[in-house]
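Structural prep section.
Before we set up the soaks we want a predicted structure of the protein with S-adenosylmethionine in place, mainly to decide which crystallisation condition to try first. Input record follows.
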Amino acid sequence: MRTRQHVNPLGLSFEEFRGQRPRIPAGAAVEIEVGCADAQFLFERAAADPSRVYLGFEVRDLLVDAVNQRAADEGLPVQGIFANANHHLARVVPAGRVDRVYVNFPDPWFKARHRKRRMVDAALVEGIATVCRAGGEVFFQSDVWSVALDAMDAFERADAVLENQAGPWSFWKDGNPYGVRSWREQNAEAEGLDIWRILYRRR
Ligand SMILES: C[S@@+](CC[C@H](N)C(=O)[O-])C[C@H]1O[C@@H](n2cnc3c(N)ncnc32)[C@H](O)[C@@H]1O
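Run finished without errors. Recording the tokens verbatim:
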């Protein structure tokens, strides 16, 4: 499948929500990946524990279609949601409903003039903190040091509602605790790259 490599998530066309709203059955635990791409991580989670609902937020519509097709083909409880997570997460997911949010290897946007496109900002952190239930987990990982530092800065500013499980301003040293890996994670490990991880719990 051919998809555009990158889209500018700050484009005006991404301000309005045009996707399908998530379908969340009463009582089901909910996990979200923001920037899920092909949702490999969520499909592996769903295969390991199909009792939960897995929502993948993604700004590239062809990938969302492919995720929903695969979910139907494989009968797994994964839903691709076409959305700009920074704008729409807390608009389409009920407050306090989510057990876990993953941010796996967001786009690095290396050029200085593109840095404002980086996904983890105050708006996304506020959205994540809003949808998470008390005790819910927020897991971030990246193989790009400056992306990880920017993300930690954004998360630590919300320390009134998010508690860093490694201590304030500290990275999580015990690896990925969830037993499944996204494509980017598999590539980073295969290439021997360092991976910086952060784990928070909603207060
Ligand atoms: C580098 S890929 C990582 C994919 C996957 N998480 C992994 O670890 O393999 C980042 C993805 O985030 C998506 N993305 C970027 N900004 C976004 C936003 N504001 N809302 C939703 N998705 C976004 C991109 O389109 C891209 O598919």
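Observations: The first helix runs from residue 40 to 48.
Flagged for discussion at group meeting.
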